[in-house]
Amino acid sequence: MNSLPADIVLRVDRLRTHFELGSRVAKSVDDVSFDVKRGETVAVVGESGSGKSVTSLSIMRLLSPPGRIVGGQILYRAGDGRVLDVAAVSQKEMRRIRGREIAMIFQEPMTSLNPLYTVGDQIVEMIRLHEPLPKQEARKRARRMLELVEIPAAERRLDEYPHQMSGGMRQRAMIALALSCNPKLLIADEPTTALDVTIQAQILDLLRRLQAEIGMSILFITHNLGVVADIAHEVVVMYAGRVVEQASSQRLFERQKHPYARGLLACIPDASRDRTPSGERLRLNPIPGNVPSVMALPKGCSFAPRCPLRIPRCEEDPPLLVAEPHHLSRCWRHDEL
Amino acid sequence: MVAVASNPEQVRFISLLLRRRTVLIGLAVLALIAGLAILAPVTAPYAPNKLSIANRLKPPSGTFWFGTDEFGRDIFSRTIYAGQLSLLVGVSVVCFASIFGIALGLVAGFFRKLDTPVARFIDAMMAFPDILLAIALVAALGPSLATVIVALGIVYTPRLARIVRASTLVIRELPYVEAARALGVSTWRIMTRHVLRNLVSPILVQATFIFAYAMLAEAGLSFLGLGVSPEVPTWGTMIAAGRQYVGRADWMTLFPGIAIILSVLSLQMVGDGLRDMLDPRFRKDL
Q1: How close B275 comes to chain A (CA, Å)?
Q2: Which residues pair with B217 in a beta bridge?
Q3: Residue B2, in any domain of the structure
Q4: pLDDT tens readout for residues B68-89
Q5: Parallel, antiparallel, or unpaired for β A242-248 and A234-239?
Q6: Which domains does chain A have, with CATH numbers?
Q7: pLDDT in tens, A41-52
Q8: Residues of A in contact with B178 (CB under 8 A)
Q9: CA–CA separation, B164 vs B152, rounded Å?
Q10: Short-list B4, B6, B14, B1, CA closest to B278
């Protein structure tokens, strides 16, 4: 039977998700492993096409064909103590898990709520889908959920339609919806990307506070390393379908052991050091080039073509190496970084 | 229906719709025809099959508003009673076509593997001329009221199925459908609650058109002797009977003809108004 250490809620173990298009295979997620501990936040970071969203969709089993989990396990500790391999359970079991055990919020708060129903209706539907509660009870819980996500005048807001709310408000409503059945794991797929910066900070604050109150774990998918520092305990950096660096948030921000993570950080503008000592403006350092298509990965290290530290050995594919204790890097030159 | 009326956007939609003159006139004419037909025992001055040889082929007058036919039956009363049947056929065909059209369309739009076979089947049926297919089906099943309804239902099912399928393909990919799935909503519930609810308006538009076509087609089939038995008054059978007296008693064909025109036209006006309202390019002027 499957087993998990007691403090781990989700273990993604050598997950491989491929998209088979005719004879060509896109290895969107290739041998990805990480753990999510109880009450902690793991951030999966990467550019578009790095496989981070496919990873989250794999965990929810929401891949649309031709996407398919072809290998690995996704172990999840359910509320009743059983350890399930999410990659292998039946559709029926999966429906029970979705929403109740693992919930998900999305990037587009503007369109993630059905425009035809009031926010209250949608939360009540969700609650009653998973728990046999009378309508009135469910409505009370829905109101409490809106209060929990700090939506003012919750009672009135319950009867409003999504179009009557602002983007930040809708994302809060979406979070209320996702959390209304007390999931143990929340997958947040770029939840703040479509929001402006002040609202972004509010939503992150909210997630952090909810985590402390409810004790849920969060799997946070983002392309923005700046956001990660605010919320994550553990960071997984993905590139072209693979994990290239993995460490605690603190450690990773102190010292990157992979040139890609370092490049990502160098792209973030920093007001406190945007001028040289002589007063000239510093230029931002973008990473040249694009993420290679997972249909046509370069030979050897897939980051090599964009890497400033490239050496001949990079023709050979580096494994995920232990750079320091609890700090993994997929780079031959990690000890020079 | 309570939910429909409580949605402020839909209340606004209905009030905007009623501000269109064509829609208002169409609805009024339709209500008049439907009211007359449904209340036929009260509204018709004579029984539809009351013979009166003394009053054969009388032109319209104060006693016989629309005149009488070759057996002295009152055309006005018969037109009203015939309306019952036309409305019955129209409503039944719309229900039949809606049930099967929505089912086929949702299945085709939702389940990728079934899409190609179902969609090709629908296209093949669309390629057949409507009235020809109806005639063939009635000929195969034998003429009766039920046959006419089933045949026309089959003829108009693909129209609805196509629209439902196309819209389902779009809505299926919307983020809130994915979000619903991520929160554990079953496919059946997503189909009915999230997708179908969004399709109410286009289905309604199509249903009004099908209603009109079905009434017209029923009249055509009855005229050709392929509908209900000739002694039952329908607009089609009345025109067929009056055909021999064109020139001598034009009112026998004229008034059932006007009834067909008015009901089909008013339905088309309502349908056009609905469609325009749903098309943002036409909504700008409001």
Answers
A1: 19
A2: none
A3: no
A4: 877 778 888 889 988 898 889 9
A5: antiparallel
A6: 1-94+185-194+217-272+287-321+329-337 (3.40.50.300)
A7: 999 998 888 888
A8: 62, 106
A9: 19
A10: B14
Confidence (pTM):
0.77
The answer to whether position B137 is within a domain reads yes
Q: DSSP characters for B181-203? A: HHTT--HHHIIIIIIIHHHHHHH
CB-based contact A113 B174, cutoff 8 Å: no
Strands, sheet with A83-85, edge to edge from the N-terminal-most edge strand: A24-37, A8-21, A67-77, A83-85
Task: Indicate yes or no: CB of B9 within 8 angstroms of CB of A161.
Answer: yes
CA–CA gap between residue A44 and residue A302 (Å, rounded): 18
In 3D, which of A85, A63, A72, A74 has the Cα closest to residue A16?
A: A72
Which domain range does residue B41 map to?
Answer: 32-47+63-280
Alpha helices in chain B (DSSP H): 2-6, 8-18, 21-38, 40-43, 75-110, 112-127, 130-141, 145-172, 175-182, 187-189, 197-223, 235-242, 251-278, 280-283
- Cβ contact B183–A95 (<8 Å): no
Q: Determine contact: B183 vs chain A, CB below 8 A.
A: yes
Q: How many Å apart are CA A254 and CA A241, to the nearest integer?
A: 25
**What's chain B's length in residues?**
286
Closest CA of chain A from B110, distance in Å: 12
Q: How many CB atoms lie within 10 A of CB B145?
A: 17
Of the candidates A290, A306, A243, A319, the one whose C-alpha atom is nearest the C-alpha of residue A47 is: A290
